[in-house]
Structure formats: structure tokens, C-alpha cells
Amino acid sequence: MGRPVSRKRSQEPEASGDTRFGSDRSPIPLYHRIYVILRERIVNGTYKVGQTLPSEAELMERFGVSRITARRALDELSLEGLVDRVRGRGTQVSAGAAPRVGGVPIIAGIDGLMANLSIIGQQTTVEVFEFAYVVAPDTVATEMQLGPTDLVQRAVRVRSLADGPFSMSTTFVLERIGRTYTQEELVAIPLIDLITRAGTAIGHVKQSITAALADEISAQRLGVQPGSPLLKLRRVFYDADNRPVDYVEIFYRPDRFEYRMTLSRGADNKFQLDRS
Question: Where in the sequence is the domain holding 65, given as residue range(s)?
Fold first, then answer.
């Protein structure tokens, strides 16, 4: 078998079939689905502090909804304190908006996690949609302890099984490590193996798990309806000296991926994560 080939894609999804927002008859109200999509873009830094969000008219056209629905979605963001709605200036991301990570990071056994990541990389095919060196977004810079002008290697990839895509990941790797591999190598070799090859030993990983809704781009790339539920994982990889080297956001199709952990009762009669 030949190795997978990277293909560049457009930033915007292509229309295919009936992908109208809300055509899947989800019980989740349309305004809430739009709210979650916009909220996710604020949290992950797509919309930065002070940036103006799409207007009610733009949301109406983009999602095919009424003005009442579009206004309700923006009002929900305002009630949460994520945006300021000012007449004549539109809806802008507020200064108080900050990433919201649910719960305490899950600490998994590092040996098992690293092995699983390598195996997944070897048993799936991958397409690289974006590969560039960029200034780290605010959220990433904070997590990776970077300066305001520090560059990172940013890549967006979709992994697929035989029956179709199951995950879309966006990775931010320290520039000095990113310069050691090419886009073609990222297609053929798991990222965790490339980081190891660069001479960086991973000491530990912090991870959080939450839920999200597919926006237009992730829906097109993962083959689901816009607004469909996705499983979202955030991981920060640290080297042996406790320095962050890689920040990852991954969206999984829940019908093709599930996350399992084993808890064992310890000597103190409390359940703990089984690190074996």
C-alpha cells in the first residue's frame, strides 16, 4: 500500500447533499446550537478580544435561520459575559472572555497513552489540511508559556478509518521541534513519534474532555451535519523538564470513537485511575 497523500483543502466547507443547519431534526434549539458554535470559536481564540462577530443578518444567511433565532444566540453569549453588544458597533468579544475548561485535567498513565497515540497514528490514514508557522494564539501562548510573538508549527489534520473520518486535530508544536519535520512526514509518521525523534522526551500530559457542536468546517471535514455533537479533547504535552512542547485540540465523532478509563479501588478504599 502506498502511504496517504496530503491534500490541501479550502477553509470553507463545500456544499454536499442536505447540509442545511437543523435539517437533522435535532431536539437542541437552533439558537442554542449557533450559540455553542460561536462560544467555541471565542474560547479557542478564533474570535479574539475586541473582534466583531457576524451580525444577525450574517448569521441568518449563514445558518438559514430567522432574525429572532440569530438574536437569541448572540443574547446568550452576552448573558454569559463573553460579548458586548453595542448599538452601531455590533457584537464584540468582551475583555472578560476567557477559555473555559471543564473540570480537572484527567491524568492518564503516560506509557499507555503514548503507545495508544502511536498505534492510532499507524493504523489510520491522515490528510493534512493546513501546515504553517504562525504566532501562537492567546490561548495557546498561555498554555505553552510563550511570548506574544513566538511562533509555533500549526497543523490541522483529519484521521480516517476504512469507513470514513473519525477525528480532526489542530496541533501547535514549539517552532524548534516543528522545524525538524516536513508536512509530508506529518502525513506518514505519528506526531508523537516525530516529537520523540527530535530528541524531546514527553514527561507528562494534561488532558481535559468536554462536548462541542460541529461548525461548518468541522462538519464538512468529519462528514456530519453542522451542529452535530462531537467529543472534544484538549491535551498539553510536557517534556521531562516540565516545559510544554505541544498543545492539541481534537474533535471526535462519537459514533466512531469512545474514551475509556479503568478505575481501581486503592488501599485507602478510594477509586483511582488504573495506570497499568
Answer: 30-93
Q: What is the arithmetic mean of pLDDT over 45-54?
A: 87
pLDDT at 273: 55
Can you tell me the mean pLDDT for 2-14?
A: 36
Q: Is 161 exposed, middle or buried (0-12, 13-18, 19+ CB in 10 A)?
A: middle
One domain, residues 85 and 142? no
* Nearby residues of 139 by Cβ (< 8 Å), 6 or more positions away: 43, 44, 45, 99
CATH code, domain with 252:
3.40.1410.10
Q: Which amino acid is at 70?
A: A
- Within-domain flag for 3: no
Which residues have C-beta within 8 Å of that of residue 193, sequence separation ≥ 6?
118, 121
- What's the whole-model pTM score? 0.62
Q: What angle do CA 114, 116, 117 make, to 5 degrees?
A: 65
Could you tell me if residue 272 is inside a domain? no
Residues 66 and 116 in one domain: no
CA distance 266 to 12: 50
Are the CB atoms for 156 and 130 separated by under 8 Å?
Answer: yes
Give Cβ neighbours of residue 244 (< 8 Å, ≥ 6 apart). Answer: 143, 144, 145, 236, 237, 238
Q: How many domains are contained in the chain?
A: 2
Chain segment 63-113, per-residue pLDDT in tens: 899 999 999 999 989 988 889 998 888 999 988 775 443 333 333 334 444
Least confident of 14-28, 128-142, 156-170: 14-28
Q: What is the pLDDT of residue 49?
A: 85
